[in-house]
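User: My collaborator sent over this chain with a note saying "see what the structure looks like." That's all I know about it. Can you take a look?
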Amino acid sequence: MIMSDILAARSQMAMSLGFHIIFAVMGIGMPLLMMIAEGLYLKTQNRVYLDLAKRWAQGTAIMFAVGAVSGTALSFELGLLWPTFMKFAGPIIGMPFSLEGFAFFLEAIFLGIYFYGWDRISPRAHWLTGIVVFISGTLSGIFVVCANAWMNAPAGFTLADGVVTQFDPFKAMWNPASFSQTLHMTLAAYVSVGFAAAGIHALGLLKSPGSQLHQKAIQIAFWVGAITIPIQLFSGHLSAEHVAEYQPLKLAAMEGQWHTQAGAPLRILGWPNEPQERTDYAIEIPNMLSFLAYENFDATVQGITSFPQEDRPPIWPLHISFQIMVLSGLAMLGVACLGAFLTWRKKSWSSLKWFLKLLVLASPLGFIALETGWVVTEVGRQPWVIWHVMRTAEAITPMPHLVVPFLLFSTLYLLLGVVVIYLLKKRVFHVDA
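Assistant: Without extra context I'll predict from the sequence alone. Here is the result:
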């Protein structure tokens, strides 16, 4: 296997996951928005909420359809690009994948009922189908993330001479990383969709001042993002504590901690200088990394140099991605606090153009944090595809010329992305409201 093929396989998987995760997150977050909008319609009989629920339902259907295509492509890629991994891991983590499939079909069935049942079933029954879509979409994401968590904290199996002799699918699925990863990912979906929808409707309100639909859409979407972002940051802290215990090398690379140190500082920004084994230009907060990782200001944090060179992940992509993720989260928290303050002061958002413009600027931050967060998760595990069990180079297919499918899939995803943007603009986020 030549290095270019290994790079092509990893790049194809990264590109496919990076594309699919957007639609997976929309499948988790959008049903929450449409469920809230329809619930408010049932309570107030204000038809603006009904129109909003129907728009968001169309967006959910579009994203669900494209997500199904990209998810199917991913399932084929797992078998074609990583056959050794699937042969080893398939029996162990097959259960969460099977449960994800069940949740996916349940979501598809009830989304169809929701989408075509507006005038065919009672309003309350229709709203209940939306709740099922919301729950099944969330469960679908949870089950998939459980499988990924197992790759970071493998559990529930016994090895003898490199062969799995017995396994417990429940212990594998509910491995030590499952809770922190599934909580973090689920909240990330609500935060990302909330801020994105708020920003898009803020743009609509700037173009169509006085639009009741955009005003109410911003109120729902903003509060979904604003309520979940502080919880998300706390869940990030739980994830960091897990990483500190189970993947200390990943923690060191994330934080740019080159040398083992008691009372290690927290670094903000900075650029890893690998030849000199230091992180340049960073703002350091003394002892804070030790406290955040171990709840002890004097705790010892292992450094990158305490691990063999061949086991280290790529340092600068990991550190920079982690910094972008954290700063994006803090920026969203700041916008959420500002919106809450304006509400407390009884200021109308719709009359404050500067705040609407701020929402527009903040709209991509959730997805930026989402993508960089997955870079942290996946790149931070390298060179292992299963942490300290199987290396990525051992899992790849022997098939040559992997650059060709990489280019083909990249073109396909580019075209799908253009189609989705057109459909969303035409059917969901048009400003004539």
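A starting point for your reply to your collaborator: Residues 3-44 form the longest helix (42 residues).
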